[in-house]
Design a protein that fits this description.
The structure holds 2 protein chains of 2 kinds. Chain A is mainly β. Helices cover 0% and strands 46% of the residues of chain A. In chain A, the strands form 2 sheets. In chain A, strands 1, 3, 4, 8, 9 and 10 form a 6-stranded mixed beta sheet that branches. In chain A, a hairpin with a 7-residue loop joins β8 and β9. The radius of gyration of chain A is 14 Å and the shape is globular. Chain B is an all-beta fold. Chain B contains no helices and 11 strands. In chain B, the strands form 2 sheets. In chain B, strands 2, 4, 5, 6, 9, 10 and 11 form a 7-stranded mixed beta sheet that branches. Chain B has a 4-stranded antiparallel beta sheet with strand order 1-3-8-7, with no helix packed on it. In chain B, 37% of the residues are buried. The chains are: A mainly beta, B mainly beta. Chains A and B meet through β4 and β9 of A and β5 and β10 of B.
Chain lengths: 113, 115
C-alpha cells in the first residue's frame, strides 16, 4: 500500500497559488519525497523531489515539514495547463528492495478560468 | 533523443490471445519498469528491471512476463490475455538504480482492450 495520504481533489482559480498537501507519517530517514503529475491522457511526468530542505525548480516548490511527516507542493501561479492528477510518493522499501515507486490515487487538481 | 517509446499505442485482443507490448529508451537508463493504470486508480507496478539480465516482480505480476536482454528494451508479454488485463500500460525508466534520487521518465502509454 502507498505510504502517503493526499486529498482526493482540490480546486483552484487561474493565476492563484495552489498548495497541495501530502502526509507521510511513516517516512524513513533516507526516503526521498517525490511529486509527479499526470495530465489527461498522458503518462506521468516528474515535478520535483526532496529529502529535508525545501526545493525549488521551474515548475514548482516543495516545502517539507521539519519532522518530514508531511510536505506541500506549491504551484505559484496556477494555469489551466496545471490541471492534472498530482502524486506524492515515497521510495518503497518493502521486502528489502528499494526499486519500487508506489503511486497512490493522487489529488485531482481542477483549475478554474 | 526520443526518451521512452511504447508500441503499440492501442491494441484490441480476444481472450486467450498473446501479445507483447514494446518499450524502448535511448537514455542508457539502467532501471526500467512497467505499470498498469485502471480507471480511477493510481499506477500499479507490474515488473521492473535494474539492468540487462535482471528482472523482478512488482505489485501485480501475475499474467505478465518480462525479459531484459539489452539496456534499451524491456518488453512486456501477455501470455494469455484476460478481460481483467484491459488497462493502460506505462513503461518508465530511470538513470538511477536506486530510484530514490532519480527522476522516472514515462512513455505515453499503451491502451489495451481484451474482449
Amino acid at each position: 500500500d502507498a505510504k502517503t495520504t493526499q486529498p482526493n481533489s482540490m480546486e483552484s482559480n487561474e493565476e492563484e497559488p495552489v498548495h497541495l498537501p501530502c502526509n507521510h507519517s511513516t517516512i524513513s530517514g533516507t526516503d526521498y519525497i517525490h511529486w509527479y503529475r499526470q495530465l489527461p491522457s498522458q503518462g506521468p511526468e516528474y515535478v520535483i523531489h526532496g529529502l529535508t530542505s525545501n526545493v525549488n525548480n521551474r515548475m514548482a516548490s516543495l516545502a517539507i515539514a521539519e519532522d518530514r511527516k508531511s510536505s506541500t507542493l506549491i504551484l505559484h501561479r496556477a494555469t489551466l495547463r496545471d490541471a492534472a492528477v498530482y502524486y506524492c510518493i515515497l521510495r518503497d522499501n518493502s521486502g528489502g528492495s528499494n526499486y519500487k515507486l508506489t503511486f497512490g490515487k493522487g489529488t485531482l487538481l481542477t483549475v478554474n478560468p | 533523443n526520443a526518451g521512452v517509446t511504447q508500441t503499440p499505442k492501442f491494441q484490441v485482443l480476444k481472450t486467450g490471445q498473446s501479445m507483447t507490448l514494446q518499450c524502448a529508451q535511448d537514455m542508457n537508463h539502467e532501471y526500467m519498469s512497467w505499470y498498469r493504470q485502471d480507471p480511477g486508480m493510481g499506477l500499479r507496478l507490474i515488473h521492473y528491471s535494474v539492468g540487462a539480465g535482471i528482472t523482478d516482480q512488482g505489485e501485480v505480476p501475475n499474467g505478465y512476463n518480462v525479459s531484459r536482454s539489452t539496456t534499451e528494451d524491456f518488453p512486456l508479454r501477455l501470455l494469455s490475455a484476460a478481460p481483467s488485463q484491459t488497462s493502460v500500460y506505462f513503461c518508465a525508466s530511470s538513470y538511477s538504480r536506486a530510484i530514490n534520487t532519480g527522476e522516472l521518465f514515462f512513455g505515453e502509454g499503451s491502451r489495451l482492450t481484451v474482449l
